[in-house]
Amino acid sequence: MSLPIKTEDNEYNRSPIPFAYSPQYVAYLRMKRNNRWLVRTAQLLVLILFLGCWELFAIVGWVEPMLTSRPSIILASLSDLLVHGNILYHTWITTKETIIGIAISMTLGTFIAILFWWSTFVSKVLDPYIVVLNALPKVALGPIFYIWLGDRMSIYGMAIAISIIVTIIMIESGFKELSKSKLKLMESLGASRFQMLVMVLLPASIPNFVATMKVNVGLTLVGVIMGEFLSSKAGLGYLIIYGGQVFQMNLVMTSIVLLAVLSIILYGVATYMGNKLLKKYHFE
After folding, report:
1. Is the dihedral angle over the CA atoms 198, 200, 205, 206 positive or is it negative?
2. What sign does the dihedral 241-244-248-250 (CA atoms) show?
3. pLDDT above 90: residue 148
4. What band does 19 get if pLDDT is binned at 50, 70 and 90?
5. What is the pTM for the complete model shown?
6. In degrees rounded to 5, what are phi and psi of residue 104?
7. At 13, is the secondary structure helix, strand, or coil?
8. For position 282, what pLDDT does the model report?
9. Which residues pair with 93 in a beta bridge?
10. What is the pLDDT of residue 283?
11. Which of 9, 25, 163, 248 has the CA that lies 20 to 30 A from 218?
């Protein structure tokens, strides 16, 4: 290896060192790439097979299309709603409510988890109540939220009620694990509680925040739909209830398909944002 040569402008020129992957490593990378494409292809084939069987069974009469609809009719119904209906408005309402619910749940849940970590006394006093609230069926709170908050705000109340408890539990558990391992040095150096929180605990909890946000996508969307079932006059949950009442199963199934697409998009956005955050703080 050649030594660095100092030039007149005090810069160093280093000779490039040739580097190449071993054939075994190249074969390993190729195998991983092929496996990834194989999984994606298999997932697509499963979806195609499911839709094809659904369409075929409806055509031959093995299932009643009046009750279950079928993919071709759902596609035609979606196209008609996009052109002549207000399906995009209802989809946007559900999307907005879900995003706001996730933001409030993450913010408030993180604050409460920090409070539990900060005060062991508060954590021990309130921990049984958190367990009970986590086990309580949240749909039972729907009529209470409707009376307390009204038809629109009760949807946010339901969404937050479903997701905030899980947020508190997951983030607090992450805090406790970090407290056992990574805060001992800060304590020995005489750092304050606030310094340990800002300098160690919160930055080290980024992967836990990302995982919690991904979980909250599904939980908050469930809460929003449950709230729309009970009191909303707009949104995909409202369309599902309305379609069931007037026995328009095409509208019901189209709304369910849009919910599936919306959940995939929101989860993808959460994953993308989480990966960016992890890279920013060098967790990948």
Report:
1. positive
2. positive
3. no
4. low
5. 0.78
6. -65, -45
7. strand
8. 64
9. none
10. 61
11. 248
